[in-house]
Amino acid sequence: IEETRQNIDKISENVEEAKKLYSIILSAPIPEQKTKDDLEQLTADIKKMANSVRNKLKS
């Protein structure tokens, strides 16, 4: 249960970070590739953790 809570908290933190990156990308005339890559990695991490939490809640 504690691990699931920690994962949910981490997902929440990652979502906030993703919002910041989206803001940076949308406000920049030519967004940096590194920012896009960071956002892509963050999104993948969020999906992976969300699937893990979902599976633990199902079992």
From TrEMBL:
Entry coiled-coil feature ranges: 1-52
Lineage top rank: taxon: Eukaryota
GO biological process, one term: vesicle-mediated transport
Alphabetic keyword roster: Coiled coil
GO cellular component: membrane
Alphabetical list of InterPro entries matching this protein: SNARE, Syntaxin_N
Syntaxin N-terminal domain segment(s): 1-58
UniProt key word rRNA processing: no
Keyword ATP-binding: no
One Pfam family, short name: Syntaxin
Protein name (database record): STX3 protein
Lineage: Eukaryota, Metazoa, Chordata, Craniata, Vertebrata
